[in-house]
Amino acid sequence: MSELLVIRHGQASFGADDYDQLSDLGHKQSAMVGATLRDLGWVPDRLVTGTLLRQKQTLAAMGFESAPEEHAGFNEYDFHDLLTVKFNGEVPDRVRHDRKAHFRTLREVIYEWQDGGLTDARESWVNFTARVQAARGFACNTEAKRVLVVSSGGPIGQLVASALKAPVKQMVALNLQVKNTSITRFFWSGARFTLNEFNATPHFGNQDDAAMMSYS
Q1: Mean pLDDT over residues 98-105, rounded?
Q2: Pairwise pLDDT comparison (201 vs 190), residue with the higher score
Q3: Quick one: DSSP state of residue 123?
Q4: Helix 53-62, helix 24-39: angle, nearest 10
Q5: Taking a C-beta distance cutoff of 8 angstroms, is the pair 77, 116 a contact?
Q6: What is the pTM of this model?
Q7: CATH class of 2-75+124-210
Q8: How far, in Å, CA of 142 to CA of 17, rounded?
Q9: Which of 35, 85, 156, 214 is deepest in the core (most CB within 10 A)?
């Protein structure tokens, strides 16, 4: 059996004009998860990220030396675009800057997207799920026994939901609870692809480190 570890990127810059940058906390979280994997003796044979800067910055801060590959299927869905389409170009400030309002609204918007709504969005739900599936195939098409991927909450939620054959809307519940730099582990052999561990954060295991946990 081979292992696929999918790490969510570190904390990004919520509410900033350029969200696609790690915060200072995000850089620290990324270094911590990399150090924890090495302490556990888990060193990857292959590294993969999406094409987003926050994903690449996370992997760089983790401190592994091999050159990474990229697959855009591991990129997050464009939540800015979905919200813009939902609100006809005028996303309310509260939805943009208040975390609770943002994620409460985003949940309902994703449900609508999954049901075939938001037809003016740049990417359909069907295309999103297809590219995540393609990214999974890319990561697992290898002789490597330990593959490390840095991705985002949406693709991780979809990978887990697909592995569990869960109802479509379960992806949203999974997506919105994925912690920054959490570890989700799958095993695969041939066509078999099974979930072993979801959203684990051993690097936040003591009281002081737990204060560094974040979700966005």
Answers
A1: 92
A2: 201
A3: S
A4: 50
A5: no
A6: 0.95
A7: alpha beta
A8: 38
A9: 156
- Distance between CA atoms of residues 13 and 115, nearest Å: 29
Tokens of 142: 């290898």
Q: How many whole angstroms separate alpha carbon 140 and alpha carbon 9?
A: 20
β-bridge mates for residue 6, sequence order: 149, 184
Cite the DSSP H helix spans in 40-86. 53-62, 79-86
DSSP collapsed to 3 states, 59-115: HHHHCCCCCCEECHHHCCCCHHHHHHHHCCCCCCHHHHHCHHHHHHHHHHHHHHHHC
Give the amino acid at 140.
Answer: C
Residue 52 tokens read as 């987003």
The answer to whether 69 and 76 are in contact (CB under 8 A) is no
Specify the 3-state DSSP secondary structure of 101.
helix
Q: Is the pLDDT of residue 99 over 90?
A: no
Per-residue confidence (pLDDT) for residue 13, from 0 to 100: 80
Amino acid at 186: F
Q: Where are the domains of the chain?
A: 2-75+124-210, 78-122
State the distance between the two ends of the chain, measured CA to CA, in whole angstroms.
32
Helix 99-114 to helix 79-86 angle (10° resolution) is 80
